[in-house]
Design brief:
Length: 368
Amino acid sequence: MYIIIALVALVFVVLTGVVISRLQNVLKSINKSDSTEVDTSGNKVNGAMFIVVLIVGAVSITWSYLHAREFFLPEASSVHGRRTDDLFWFSMGILTIPFIIVNFLIFFFAWKYQHKKDHRASFYPENHRLELIWTIVPAIVMALLVFTGWKAWSDITSDAPRDAEVIEITGKQFNWIARYSGVSDNKLGNYNYKLIDAQNEVGIDLSDENSFDDFTNPSEMHIPVGRPILLRIRARDVLHSVFIPHMRVKMDAVPGMPTKFWFVPDKTTADMRAELNDPKFDYEIACAEVCGQGHFSMKMRLIVEDEASYKKWCAEQATFLQTYPEYLAKVPENLKAKAMKYVPAEAATPADSSSGSVGAAGTSTSLR
């Protein structure tokens, strides 16, 4: 190892000596009269090397782009996803034009205007018209890009339509939990982090009657195609990030600070399987924030289906109260009659109906 370091140091010392020697020759030629011949022994080689680097660089950049295309994000399966993709490639196209022109001229001019005998450089102090052109044109282009980006982002982050399907997704170490607003309404019940326990993993507050028909699913999320989907995003412990690559959805899940993101999926899972000729394809919800040792397991299957299939699936799901009827004891007395229809008949005992409310304690946070 020390030998390698010593050799590298020796090479740098030799190169430094060569550079210093060349600089001394240049300084000597400058101090002499104009009639003195300037040493141009390396000009042609250096100039040719600029052209070589230009060609090799262009080929390498092109190859790198073509090779990396298979690792780009997949084609968007949401309305806003297609818009952001179009905006991205439009911006890339606009910015690539000056990138190519400027870099070509830098390398070409280094070769074209190398020192030659009897050639004198032209003195070109100013050109106001040219300065105005290369100032105003880029300013207009940049303003256009900024405005279109701002407009797209404003639309994407605007309030969701009133008829949006509301789904809550909660991140915890190390999985996602989806909570649905049930089939009776499209309103999620309140939640209270103080109510979280082994069964009530998202803190459903049963003092709110809108939570009676809510149900949860920790393994997969179903959404209808062609309808706005509003994700209410929460984290139970540390910072997570909801990432759905095909839908171009990405939003942090922050403990104590609910976030949201709405989108309109326009391709069902079946459509994608047919398009890709892959019967095993599934959309995936991943975590884009390193949240601990089990971060790799933070993923959930996403099923996009037609409206009828989605409603049928929702109707088949057991509500939280049906799954854990013992939580009827946490429903306030004045709401127990409404909650009874969401509890299996055999579980609705007199003891349940006389139990006091536990879920009403604490301050609940409304999701509506």
